[in-house]
Amino acid sequence: MADSLVCRAGGALETLVHQFSDPLSFYRELIQNSLDAHSRRIDIQVEHQDDTMVISLDDTGEGMSAEIIDTRLTRLFSSGKEEDLTKIGRFGIGFVSVFALNPDAVVVDTSRDGAHWRVLFKADRSFVRLARDEPVEGTHIRIYKKATAEECAQLVARSREVIRFWCRHVDGQIFFQGELQNEPFDIAGPCTVRRSHKGTTILVGYPEDGQAFIGFYNRGLTLAESTREHTLPGLAVKIDSRFLEHTLSRDGVVQDARFATLMAEVREIASGELPDLLLEQLEQRLRENQDAGLHYAAATALFGWPFRRRWAGAALSHRDGEAEGDSWRAVPGRHGSCHICYGPYVTDLEPGDSVARFRLRCEADGPGDVAQVDVYDGASLVARNLKSEDFPYPDRACDFSLAFRAAQGSKLEFRVYWHGQHPLRVEQVEVLGGARQRPGGLERNLFRTPAGAEVSLREVLAARPCLTAWENGPLVQALEEQGKLVLRARPGEGSWALLEALFDQPPVPAALSWCLPRPADRQHEQQAEPLRAAVQKLACSNGARVSQVRLAHFDGPERVAGQAVPGQLTPTGQLDRLPAGLLSRPAGLALNLDHPLVKTLIEVSQKEPCLAAYLLLKLFLRPDAEEDARLALLTWRQRCRKS
Description:
Largest sheet: 9 strands, mixed
Strand order of the largest sheet: 1-6-5-4-7-3-2-8-9
CATH class of the largest domain: Alpha Beta
Oligomer: single chain
Distance between the termini: 127 Å
Helix content: 25-40%
């Protein structure tokens, strides 16, 4: 080592050393310098040797000459990159950042133009340049610092995290502890538009997790990433451009005219090319019978409300009632009428059209008021009173939607006032808002019928509301013969979620709205003749207009009987009642052979038809005490006449 040059850095160095909030930012700066030297591979290692931690960084770049060492490496703000937009380490402070770790020594070995050099930096920031005899491929840097084994292990974990973040999409190979850290420049999701031009590549797509995200990069090095600022709802955006620059403190991206131009191009892709590509790919996957779950999820985000928040009933505020799992319930005689749910005082809903959705379940045992739901902001913006007939399915929750307009600065409550007459359970409250995108691609076939026929988005929107079923069967075929559209969808599937987003309410399963009882065979009809005759006689004596009583299969034990004619489509809303009064049209009553009690009552009716008829009608009609007494008296009289 013949030649040497010794220098001592001035006070300006200390200011630059500590300008980064994270001392490990030196990794980013050194990797930038290696990339600027056209290195295609960078190897980083952290080792613990004799109470000393050694951090090494080796690249395969162009190396440095004595002139470069003297005028660029060791001279502040002289990087020589000011006019080259393809090199982002422009401030001449990259190498200075190694001293943020307060090392005991830093050694740089490099070769160029047949000369080989070592630069040794001491703990007091003084340095010496020495000539070497052995050549070095590229540049090798060693950082030495006293540390325990535990401190070294902690730095290894943190280093891996930092390097992966800053070098996520570098075009080359970045190895840490022998493992490749960078990854392809892409978006993990079902559909992404890639546009490249003028040293710029833009990606806009629908992420798998639905989390809005934006990242800014220069040659794959991270400038800034965010899940809030500059994001577009439901979209992931990545921009790699030589026109993007990081701020002097390396904690953001410069927002100049070139930045604005790139963001305008992102918005243009997001509003046109991307949704068109999504719907095209969704249609293609359905046609080829490929999994379309992620594409449906992206389409749901596209057409749904940008603002969507929900709370379990138990998570809201309450004046009375009790928790039942995540729900909140009120029971007559145990709780008083009041706002059993209110809150949660939403303040960040954008002004404009919005929807509040209440999911409630009521087991009403008679007519009457159940509850009032409203949206409140110092005054009621919209309200609806709910009665027992608004809950057709006692064993299922029902959704009730209220449309309203949110104002700037609103402090919104979503309230449920319980009238105290019928048991009520609040399962969840949901609010939807923000500017929605109008459905496009109306001619795209985005749905299928249970039989596999293609259905366009235009047909679906025209059929509002549409029915759903997962399997093709007699009920679906009968509905289609009557001109009703039935789509293949079920809860938890992508097609179901998209329909819910399009119509602002859950789809309606065909089996919940319609029933097609199958006729029983002749043997069962004959065996059940005593029960059928007794039921018809008792029902008519009780004031019901019953034209016939037949046996049928309801394909499930949910109900003991229903107002229906076997083999004919019947709305489920009329199954649980019988017409009464002289002006009512007589209807058929079908006894459900799939209900275990019906089979038992057929046997009982062979000896006690009146008693069997009474038990069946009591279970079907669910009379109150007075009505039950009248029905029992009629049964007793008919039995006495028979005997």
